[in-house]
Write a structure and sequence with these properties.
Elements: H1 2-25, H2 33-46, E1 52-57, H3 68-82, E2 86-93, H4 105-112, E3 118-124, H5 125-131, H6 133-139, E4 142-145, E5 150-153, E6 162-165, H7 168-178
Parallel strand pairs: 1-2, 2-3
Antiparallel strand pairs: 1-4, 4-5, 5-6
Length: about 180
């Protein structure tokens, strides 16, 4: 019986912590890899025509690989562009890894098909660090930015894959950072 009470208390504590974060800070508990990709896909698919999605990719090891999640993520990106959602992505790459960027099919397609609704920009991490180290630091592990929501990337080695953010001030900061 005491085990059930401990489990119940743990569930209540987790729910309270989640609601506290959401109410006071407008962001969610850390998202697992599965939750992160499911949220990405839902947000991308629900973005209306003529809207803009802004993204910064710092080329985490978990990004742009052949996993089912990344393949589905890229498909959602392409489907959004087809329905006239403007998708702008900045790739921040390490100089010694610049040769591999064009070997990754999704990124090659992103760059090769850069048109009105699909824009890509590439900058070397070392160059950005030289000209504006604070900007590089602010980019963190990258993000996907929608009108009223952002998904902040996290390196899974930190134990989580990302966070959902809805705080207006933080969204404004992310828009300014991207622009």
């Amino acid at each position: 019986q005491s085990f059930l009470l401990e489990e119940k208390d743990l569930i209540i504590e987790r729910a309270f912590n989640s609601l506290h974060l959401l109410y006071h800070h407008n962001y969610t508990q850390p998202l697992s890899e599965t939750e992160f990709y499911a949220r990405c896909e839902r947000l991308i698919k629900s973005t209306s025509s003529r809207s803009t999605i802004k993204a910064i990719s710092v080329m985490l090891k978990c990004e742009w690989n052949d996993s089912a999640e990344e393949t589905q993520f890229w498909k959602a990106n392409i489907d959004a562009v087809k329905k006239r959602v403007k998708l702008e992505r900045i790739f921040i790459i390490r100089k010694n890894e610049s040769h591999r960027i064009l070997k990754i099919p999704q990124i090659r397609n992103h760059i090769k098909n850069s048109i009105v609704f699909l824009k890509s920009y590439i900058i070397e991490r070392e160059h950005l660090h030289e000209i504006d180290p604070e900007l590089l630091s602010s980019a963190g592990d990258g993000f996907l930015l929608f009108d009223k929501t952002a998904l902040l990337d996290k390196d899974p080695q930190t134990g989580t894959r990302g966070f959902l953010v809805t705080d207006e001030d933080q969204l404004i900061q992310l828009h300014n950072l991207f622009d």
